[in-house]
Amino acid sequence: MILVIKENTVKNDIDELIAKLRWMKLENILTEENGRYHIAIVNGGDANTDFKQFSLFPCVEQVLPFTQKFKLASRAAKKQRSVIQINGRTIGNNLFAVMAGPCSIESEEQIHETAALVAKAGANILRGGAFKPRTSPYEFQGLGKTGLQYMQAAAKKNNLLSVSEVMDTQDIELVANYVDILQIGARNMQNFSLLKQVGKTGKPILLKRGLSATYMDFLMAAEYILQTGNPNVILCERGIRTFETYARNTLDIAAIPILHELSHLPVIIDPSHGTGIREAVPPMAYAAIAAGADGIMVEVHPDPDKSYSDAKQTISPQTFTDMMNVLRQIGKAVNIHVQ
Ligand code: PEP
Ligand code: MN
Question: For residue 297, which atom of ligand 1 is closest to its CA?
Fold first, then answer.
């Protein structure tokens, strides 16, 4: 149930209502949107609980049922699209977020060179993996803490935000100390203990869609993070497994309008993992902005063929620069601003 609170309600009245909910053991989350408050009752109660009684509270305008299994991520809980503020920078609100950088942080020199090149081309967030979820345990696993230190310095120097994956609950604090956005990888989308723990950091979370996750699975995973009281979740479509095996994954562009319809959370596209084919990256990025995505995440390396991981899907700084120019033009047509 959602309790829509009347405009200009004083905080005391809301506190009184929340105290009553607590007394009834109804778990609830208070949210604010443009000065209007909503209380989402997310747990507790049974078939005999009379939720209608809350409409008798003078500060309650409406009592609405949830129409979806996911609650906090739903449009019912929040009509307007979420806008995420990170250190004075914005994700959402028709500003196209461009996260770019190597699949893996390989060396101090490599991440600094990449950061400078992508920043010059108009990226606003530096990506780079320090803890890598590799299919084979014999492949490069990432530089760990040292890599994060290199990336933090490179991002700062080039006035970029940063994003990196956290794979394990034991590394959350470490990764959170060095980056602005914590990434949950596709393989961990349903690692519920990890989701709950990263949520508690209060940092924005980039949640990647699982390899075979439905929209419902995806939004329920986001729900785990939102439940911790952290509203800053960015959904990332990064391709799913289908019967087609030529491409690494099948990028689901329809996820953009569909997730926007179901949820208020920002939706970005990862055309690199989404296709696994470097030539397909710019066209899929164009499709993403044309379909209304809130941003993209792209793998870029100064010398793509020499990438320690995901070389085949990594683009060069020149391709990235050319792609950004086209994105700016498409952005004008669909009213999305590209830096
Ligand atoms: C990545 O972005 O580095 C990554 C491993 O992505 P995914 O979890 O989508 O495979
Ligand atoms: Mn990669």
Answer: 2
**C-alpha of residue 63 to centroid of ligand 1, in Å:** 40
Chain segment 10-45, per-residue pLDDT in tens: 989 999 999 999 999 999 998 887 778 889 998 899
Instruction: Confirm or reject: Cβ of 248 under 6 Å from ligand 1.
Output: no
**Torsion over CA of 266, 270, 271 and 273, rounded to 10 degrees?**
-150
Both structure tokens of 288: 């993403």
Say if pTM beats, i.e. exceeds, 0.85: yes
Q: Are residues 101 and 55 in the same domain?
A: no
Question: Would you say residue 72 lies in a domain?
Answer: no
What range defines the domain where residue 42 resides?
A: 2-64
Residue 313 CA to residue 60 CA, distance in Å, equals 52
Residue 76 lies in a domain: no
- How many whole angstroms separate alpha carbon 111 and alpha carbon 70? 38
Number of the ligand 1 atom closest to the C-alpha atom of 186 = 8
220: Cβ below 6 Å to ligand 1?
A: no
DSSP 65: -
Q: Work out how many domains the chain is built from and give that number.
A: 2
**What's the pLDDT tens digit per position in 208-253?**
999 999 999 999 999 999 999 999 999 999 999 999 999 999 999 9
Question: Among 206, 234, 248, 270, which residue has the most ligand 1 atoms within 8 Å of its CB, making it the best to mutate?
Answer: 270
208 lines ligand 1 (CB under 6 A): yes
The closest alpha carbon to 62, from 72, 54, 50, 73, belongs to 54
Residue 276 in contact with ligand 1 by CB distance below 6 A: no
Helix (H) or strand (E) holding 190: none
Angle between helix 317-334 and helix 108-121 axes, rounded to 10 deg = 30
Angle 241-242-247 from CA coordinates, rounded to 5°: 75
In a domain, 78, yes or no: no
Average pLDDT, the chain: 96
Confidence of residue 170 (pLDDT cuts 50, 70, 90): very high
